[in-house]
Amino acid sequence: MKRFESSRLILRPWTTYDLEDLHEIMSNKEVAYLAGFSPRINLNDSFEILKKFVKEPPNSLWAIELKETNKVIGWIELHKPIEDIYKGSKEIGFVLSEIFWGRGLMIEAIEKILIHAFKEEQIDCIICSHFENNTQSKKVIEKCGFKYKIKYNNKNYYYLKRIE
């Protein structure tokens, strides 16, 4: 699996050693609410998620590690879209620990995955979405250059096309 680095981050595969960091993210009620999942109450619930993350196909899901502390602070994924907004596109999704919001870290991570998707995978269009109430993600998506496309199933969808 490809690893990516920015000035402050390492995007890498998940390992079972990431359990405590993942649980910290998954148990945060605000993060869970905005990302659309139920908060995980106990470590065992988070471990079940982590096992799925570890088995995820190569080049589709990365742990976001803060270089300064070697702590996993979120994740980013690139996958086949659930909704068929653009044919032949891939969808980027992301989650970041609440204490790291507002620092531009997710923008760094997204930029690395966009370069990979457009240049190496030759994907023509990337879509991204957020739930209507998630203004934090909306700001990140717009700062990364995505353009609004459509509201569908309580989500706002955006797209970014590869520039030839």
From TrEMBL:
The N-acetyltransferase domain, residue ranges: 9-164
Membrane-crossing segments per the record: none
PANTHER family the record matches: GNAT FAMILY, PUTATIVE (AFU_ORTHOLOGUE AFUA_3G00765)-RELATED-RELATED
Protein name per UniProt: GNAT family N-acetyltransferase
